[in-house]
Amino acid sequence: MYCLQWLLPVLLIPKPLNPALWFSHSMFMGFYLLSFLLERKPCTICALVFLAALFLICYSCWGNCFLYHCTGSQLPEAAHDPSIVGT
């Protein structure tokens, strides 16, 4: 389970508030995971645990899934502030 210490923090990185940055964020996270899987070659158990956690987060649509934005989920309260989104 040593390799999970490099995978689990990826799930804790918050999605940017600005919707224009969601594509860049998802591309960065996807390339990070792909390069990690190719370079470090985590064990099967670690990979399955990480994929199960990623599936549960994305399936629940809590808003922290970096693969896509759920249509029914609401933006955080700070996203409606024009001083934050407009920058």
TrEMBL record:
Keywords: Membrane, Transmembrane, Transmembrane helix. GO terms for cellular component: membrane. It is found in: Membrane. The lineage of its organism: Eukaryota, Metazoa, Chordata, Craniata, Vertebrata. It holds the Pfam family BC10. This is BLCAP protein. The keyword Membrane applies. It comes from Thinocorus orbignyianus. Its main location: membrane. Belongs to the BLCAP family. The chain crosses the membrane at residues 20-38, 45-69.
